[in-house]
Amino acid sequence: MGEAALKLKPLSSEDYLELEAASAVKHEFVDGQVYALAGATDRHNRIVTNLTGHLWLATRRGPCRVYSSDMKLRIATGPSERFYYPDVMVTCSESDTHDLYKVAPCLLAEVTSPSTAATDHREKLMAYQRLPELRDYLIVSAEERLVERYRRDPEEGWWYHEYREQATLTLPYLNLTLTLDDVYEGVL
């Protein structure tokens, strides 16, 4: 005879934040469900550090702040609520002051691998595009020299661009021109 199934009750965002503060492992929160995050490779960490460093240098004297993978992003739209740990996040909103998470990024970047590619290209893309202040979402491959950019045009919606090999991308609102050599320095 089998055992009775237990119905799992969705976690509230308040309970998630409380549990996350006491946890040694990071978790993302998607509509009441909690998902543990795996550790990152050396290559992944170098790419995140390269991006963070260039973004910090470009924004350090202005109102923008740059965060790497330890700051949560909260997305609350209607009944849906999510907390992610983007690999890189830039916020320039003076009202984005919560100590545990941010809500108004202008740029998000995920360094993707074969195990995270589907989530980064579908779930996170759809969730991130709901953020009204978001101007750019970068998906940076850890396997090849490839940056995929989803760029918001306020009048025309979202545009997709691929940058490969020796390409350069410009982020004028951050006063930054970034080459793929900058992104992949010491990596690929």
From TrEMBL:
Q: Which InterPro entries match?
A: Nuclease_put_TT1808, Restrct_endonuc-II-like, Uma2
SUPFAM superfamilies from the xrefs? Restriction endonuclease-like
Q: Locate the Putative restriction endonuclease domain: which residues? A: 14-179
Top-level lineage group:
Bacteria
- Protein name, entry field: Putative restriction endonuclease domain-containing protein
